[in-house]
């Protein structure tokens, strides 16, 4: 009934994390792997998956040691709020800016492909409005929307079997990781494709007792890994390394080859559908930022916090002019987020081990 | 209060009511008050009037003992009883309320908005008695409970909440009763109006209660663990909690073989997609994404559109509006004139508009297909909601092509995700994920696989069919 607060089930956690992790990067991931790791660069993906799993296990340790309490409660029960304020502000800034930049990246890509003469600010405005509508409704509504978005996008995977006839193992070559530049920025860029899993930290307290939160997070990451492996393997075998290095959005170009008697060039629909995955990612980051800021501004309603965050980042988001600028911003924020994803659990671990809860006796 | 005073007060209440009857028997010290069009005249004559003619004042006590009555002392209660179809008999300083209610309504007839090919054809009619009787005849169980409430400060309309004890989740019953009791309005005229007053989100375009005029559908909802509401004066009953997908289900699905039922249900989902997207995609493709059309089809399309002077979005909105006008005119006019409208509209839309260069042939096919698809929905209210959403998507497609359509769908999904029916998710069983229910939502599986009640009902007794040993 309305008085009972609904909680997330295992399946919802799985889909929510999967949809948060899957983003627009998927359309250029093949090219990023080819450029950074060279021939058969897709084989680098398992290393990323392992790194994320290690990170998730670390978060799982916090979940277990904190007995499912929210990370904010863990911190506030051990440290004064004044000390935590800068951390909350930093988290709010990074998460809300990440949400904003994910949207800008999508808007720039979309504008470049379909509407080169339209001012991207209009697209951004509408997408921000959608994200705000979604994030202010809370994590349970977001998980339900993400589940529907998942079903609306997942059919693209079986659909891609229509491209198998163009796939050739010969294009893989017998060489591994040759001709890659192995640049740290490139490697970080690929890792950002997996980001989103760390927000599982904020779901403590929102899940059903029976839901295996961390187990589902690991499964979600494996699902993301499997989908990235599949897509990247497909683009490597479809275009070959040489061509892939020079393509900006191989996934979109690959779907351009799908033809039906009544419709063709279905990549036009693909980048439309990517809006759904992007919205899930974006709203989750905005929601996380809203949760963090909510610890500082407890009297402000979540609706107004969401509005303020979306509006604030909207204006900051007007600064980058080109896709290249956005990518640079995203990489730096990605580095900050990687630091958060490892640093915050380590900080929490230290707190849990060193400091006792306020008001508890030593032997309690 | 003395009889004289009380009687005068009540008679004052019904001042200037020409249809009000007051029969006085001074020799017996009896006054009888009632509305003759609301009562069973035969019963009144047989049980009250005739005996009164043959008794003396001393025999009144024994004459009254033969009647079924309740004694009311409050003037307000007596007035309400008379208004509800009872006769009030005043004698010896007391008011005897004798239930004589006999609403004269339409006979039970065939359902016009929810016809089925196989299965029962009868539909509810306006009097609640007849509706309750049709339901009781289908669920002959003492567990079927019926709670009477009143709605409307002026209309005092009876509303009945029905449920099957031990199957229903009582939280839903209490929530519905609470919401109905909280209604403060002068009058409620139909069930479809009532449900809007107890909606979770009254501003939403989607119906949050399942309304139907089919007794078999309501009986299946009750047996499925849902709460049902019946309103006097409306041929519709409602059930809750409901979900978006429940509106795709027709009683026919269960009366046919499962494979046919499944095929029809899948067809309805396809029809839903066609209704909301087909015209929008036409506008999007012909305005922004010509590259999506294969070359051979492109020739036909460009030839068809070559004489049309408007952009596709205006062309589509124009045709959709004409179709809606035809539909509305057809619905309001008597059947025979309605047919003429259909023929005139068919000729105007089908031929003249194309020859005049107002629209393209292909758009006619697109608009007609989406209009036909919209009528495939078993629920008229849901079908109307979907048709309205289509207009929004056409406009968005005209502004931003495929992205516009995607933005529209995203907005719809966000709205639907937040929507609830009696506090239960409107997207059940997709979100929350209940794969067990999919067998009775996306397909109509054989009955042996439909052994459990819908999870949305949160029934304390979820098993509806024992598996065979």
Can you describe this structure?
The complex is a heterodimer of chains A (364) and B (469). Chain A is built from 15 helices and no strands. Helix content of chain A is 66%, strand content 0%. The longest helix of chain A has 33 residues, at 81-113. Chain A has helices at residues 10-21, 29-37, 45-65, 71-76, 81-113, 120-135, 138-154, 156-159, 184-192, 213-239, 241-245, 250-255, 267-296, 302-316, 323-354. The two termini of chain A are 37 Å apart. The radius of gyration of chain A is 21 Å and the shape is globular. Chain A has 364 residues and is an all-alpha fold. Chain A has one domain (10-354): Amino acid/polyamine transporter I (Up-down Bundle), CATH 1.20.1740.10. Chain B has 469 residues and is α+β, with helices and mostly antiparallel strands. Chain B has 3 domains: 3-99, no CATH class; 128-242, no CATH class; 254-424, no CATH class. Chain B has 15 helices and 12 strands. Chain B has helices at residues 3-13, 41-53, 60-65, 75-83, 128-138, 170-181, 191-197, 215-223, 252-255, 258-287, 295-305, 312-332, 335-355, 361-374, 380-418, and strands at residues 20-25, 30-35, 70-72, 86-91, 94-99, 144-151, 157-164, 210-212, 227-231, 237-240, 420-421, 424-425. A 5-stranded antiparallel sheet of chain B has the order 1-2-4-5-3, with helices on one face. Chain B has a 5-stranded antiparallel sheet with strand order 6-7-9-10-8, sandwiched between helices. In chain B, strands 11-12 form a two-stranded antiparallel ribbon. Chain B starts with a helix and ends in a 44-residue tail after the last strand. Chains A and B meet through helix 1, helix 6, helix 7 and helix 13 of A and helix 6 and helix 15 of B.
């Amino acid at each position: 009934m309305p008085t009972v607060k609904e909680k997330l089930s295992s399946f919802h956690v799985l889909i929510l994390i999967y949809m948060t992790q899957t983003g627009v990067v998927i359309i250029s991931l093949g090219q990023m792997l080819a450029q950074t790791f060279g021939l058969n660069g897709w084989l680098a993906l398992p290393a990323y998956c392992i790194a994320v799993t290690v990170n998730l296990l670390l978060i799982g340790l916090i979940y277990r040691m904190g007995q499912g309490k929210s990370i904010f409660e863990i911190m506030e029960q051990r440290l004064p709020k004044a000390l935590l304020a800068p951390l909350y502000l930093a988290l709010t800034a990074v998460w809300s800016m990440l949400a904003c930049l994910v949207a800008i990246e999508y808007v720039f890509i979309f504008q470049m492909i379909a509407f080169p003469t339209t001012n991207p600010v209009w697209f951004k405005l509408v997408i921000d409005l959608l994200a705000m509508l979604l994030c202010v409704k809370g994590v349970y509504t977001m998980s339900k929307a993400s589940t529907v978005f998942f079903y609306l996008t997942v059919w693209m995977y079986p659909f891609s079997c229509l491209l198998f006839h163009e796939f050739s193992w010969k294009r893989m070559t017998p060489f591994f990781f040759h001709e890659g530049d192995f640049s740290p920025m490139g490697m970080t860029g690929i890792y950002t494709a997996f980001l989103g899993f760390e927000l599982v930290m904020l779901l403590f307290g929102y899940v059903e007792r029976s839901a295996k939160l961390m187990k589902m997070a690991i499964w979600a990451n494996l699902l993301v890994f499997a989908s990235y492996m599949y897509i990247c393997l497909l683009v490597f075998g479809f275009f070959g390394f040489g061509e892939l290095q020079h393509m900006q959005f191989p996934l979109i170009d690959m779907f351009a080859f799908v033809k039906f008697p009544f419709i063709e060039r279905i990549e036009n629909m693909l980048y439309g559908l990517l809006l759904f995955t992007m919205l899930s990612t974006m709203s989750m980051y905005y929601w996380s930022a809203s949760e963090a800021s909510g610890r500082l501004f407890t009297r402000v309603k979540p609706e107004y916090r969401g509005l303020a965050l979306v509006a604030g980042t909207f204006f900051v988001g007007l600064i980058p002019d080109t896709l290249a600028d956005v990518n640079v911003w995203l990489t730096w924020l990605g580095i900050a987020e990687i630091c958060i994803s490892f640093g915050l659990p380590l900080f929490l671990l230290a707190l849990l081990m060193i400091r006792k809860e306020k008001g508890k006796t030593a032997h309690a | 209060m003395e009889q004289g005073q009380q009687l005068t007060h009540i008679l004052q209440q019904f001042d200037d009511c020409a249809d009000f009857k007051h029969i006085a028997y001074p020799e017996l010290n009896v006054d009888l008050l009632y509305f003759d069009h609301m009562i069973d005249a035969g019963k009144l004559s047989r049980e009250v009037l005739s005996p009164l003619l043959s008794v003396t004042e001393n025999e009144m006590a024994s004459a009254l003992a033969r009647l079924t009555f309740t004694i009311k002392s409050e003037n307000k209660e007596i007035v309400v009883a008379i208004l509800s179809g009872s006769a009030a008999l005043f004698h010896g300083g007391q008011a005897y309320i004798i239930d004589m209610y006999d609403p004269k309504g339409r006979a039970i007839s065939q359902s016009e908005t929810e016809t089925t090919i196989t299965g029962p054809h009868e539909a509810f009619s306006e009097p609640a008695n007849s509706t309750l009787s049709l339901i009781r005849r289908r669920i002959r169980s003492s567990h079927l409970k019926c709670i009477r409430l009143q709605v409307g400060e002026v209309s005092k309309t009876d509303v009945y909440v029905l449920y099957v004890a031990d199957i229903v989740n009582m939280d839903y019953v209490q929530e519905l009763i609470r919401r109905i009791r909280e209604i403060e309005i002068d009058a409620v005229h139909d069930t479809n109006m009532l449900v809007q007053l107890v909606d979770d989100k009254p501003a939403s375009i989607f119906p949050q209660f399942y309304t139907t005029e089919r007794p078999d559908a309501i009986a299946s909802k009750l047996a499925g663990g849902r709460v049902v509401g019946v309103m006097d004066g409306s041929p519709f009953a409602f059930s809750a909690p409901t979900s978006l997908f429940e509106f795709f289900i027709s009683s026919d699905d269960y009366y046919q073989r499962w494979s046919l039922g499944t095929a029809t249900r899948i067809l309805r989902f396809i029809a839903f997609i066609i209704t909301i997207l087909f015209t929008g995609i036409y506008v999007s493709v012909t305005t922004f994404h010509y590259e999506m059309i294969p070359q051979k089809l492109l020739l036909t399309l460009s030839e068809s559109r070559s004489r049309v002077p408007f952009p596709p979005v205006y062309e589509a909105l124009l045709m959709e509006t004409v179709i809606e006008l035809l539909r509305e005119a057809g619905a309001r006019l008597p059947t025979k004139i309605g047919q003429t409208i259909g023929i005139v509209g068919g000729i105007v839309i089908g031929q003249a508009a194309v020859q005049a260069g107002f629209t393209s042939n292909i758009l006619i096919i697109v608009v007609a297909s989406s209009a036909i698809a919209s009528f495939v929905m078993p629920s008229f209210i849901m079908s109307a909601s979907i048709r309205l959403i289509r207009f929004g998507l056409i406009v968005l497609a005209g502004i931003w092509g495929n992205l516009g359509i995607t933005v529209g769908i995203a907005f719809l999904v966000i709205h639907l995700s937040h929507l609830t029916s009696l506090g239960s998710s409107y997207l059940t069983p997709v979100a929350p994920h209940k794969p067990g229910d999919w067998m009775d939502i996306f397909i109509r599986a054989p009955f042996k696989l439909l052994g459990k009640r819908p999870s949305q009902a949160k029934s304390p007794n979820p098993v509806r069919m024992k598996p065979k040993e």
